[in-house]
Amino acid sequence: xxxxxxxxxxxxxxxxxxxxxxxxxxxxxxxxxxxxxxxxxxxxxxxxxxxxxxxxxxxxxxxxxxxxxxxxxxxxxxxxxxxxxxxxxxxxxxxxxxxxxxxxxxxxxxxxxxxxxxxxxxxxxxxxxxxxxxxxxxxxxxxxxxxxxxxxxxxxxxxxxxxxxxxxxxxxxxxxxxxxxxxxxxxxxxxxxxxxxxxxxxxxxxxxxxxxxxxxxxxxxxxxxxxxxxxxxxxxxxxxxxxxxxxxxxxxxxxxxxxxxxxxxxxxxxxxxxxxxxxxxxxxxxxxxxxxxxxxxxxxxxxxxxxxxxxxxxxxxxxxxxxxxxxxxxxxxxxxxxxxxxxxxxxxxxxxxxxxxxxxxxxxxxxxxxxxxxxxxxxxxxxxxxxxxxxxxxxxxxxxxxxxxxxxxxxxxxxxxxxxxxxxxxxxxxxxxxxxxxxxxxxxxxxxxxxxxxxxxxxxxxxxxxxxxxxxxxxxxxxxxxxxxxxxxxxxxxxxxxxxxxxxxxxxxxxxxxxxxxxxxxxxxxxxxxxxxxxxxxxxxxxxxxxxxxxxxxxxxxxxxxxxxxxxxxxxxxxxxxx
Length: 579
Description:
By secondary structure, the chain is α/β, with parallel strands linked by helices. Helices cover 31% and strands 17% of the residues.
């Protein structure tokens, strides 16, 4: 019996048993029985490398370099990572000249095909504005290159998503480049990669996985809907699935910080960095901990019960108010409190309508990553992205940088992210966000699985937004989507890593075990990176053991202390949050 026939039988029996046609919809809303795990991938051995260059590529694809790479190290961001012997294939797809801006475009990529193959394919979705083909190693989720998909034996692809980084955000002047960045590069590269794998190993991948963090997490969320038939497992980290809205919120934040800035730049503009000193933000973090740290049963510098903290912490009440002219890091002025309260409440227009999500107050507000995204990013990354990529038509004629951020009108300009015109026929909200994001039925019905994780101190993409998305997924699946999709908040973690957090974990192995063995992750163990690790987290508090571990729990459960060694994950259990 096919899956569709089973569903029709379920609906018919349910309606017959109830005898009330009005309850048919209620029966339909019940989640289907969990699928058995998909068959495990079979190992294979690389059969061809350098001669791949002589074999016909798919139409529109050019292999520019095919080389054997011996086992050794690959450097990413100044960090050397071990890599097994593999075949490196570099190339480009769909090369063209834009009729709009007369620039040359192509979808650049590289694939790394290990000699000892585990039978799996991993699409490495990269972050930011893309534009650079990063080494195709395959991140596992969590901070630090402890291991990678390539080391695990995956064939891995990486891409620039259809434009050169040297263009900055100006690729947004070309309509097709916008679509490639949003979703089309993935759609084009996936069959090309599977075809190349078939030529290299004599067969295609048994199982295919997709993963990334930040904009890579957005790519993953989009793939879960648009490419559900192509992937068996989806790993989405700190997903900016509402990226255009989040970028507008960043500009809103810049306007709030400018209003309380105490200094100016050499150009005479408000210096956003002067809005809050590091000591002042640490004060806020300390007051959050004072109110919320022990809600999980242990005062350990981690706020696990974010939901309860929402009602326990009040910035107006719990942070001292400075006397006029005082700024010693022991208090905040009333305008400073209002600015932070507005940002954490979420960007709004003059009518009070929300433009993006709220953010949870958390200890990571004192992190350097939080500070960089909030104060340095709006006039650089976000202003350019909103002006050239997310606005229709592009706002290329306006002064850029901080003047753009401060001059952006939340009433007049924010609606441009939903606009179209004769040249740009898809809005930013259409090409950047997953269509009907809570509808994962295609992934679910083919037996696919999805893991999402998000730092609760992420300063740019809100974990509140991700929690709300997961609640919609739950509602669409009879109030329980845990059979195929789980969301893991990471307390204290900033954007994809860092902050006062246990921010190193391996979500990819957990996803593979779930897809291929049916082992649903009841928790994932995370550690705090200390001295001696490849990328030490300098913001791990000094009184934490470098060997500290904690369980990351599937939402809405929280890690609750049950007794024993306070530095070990085994002393905690995932339980429903206390009110």
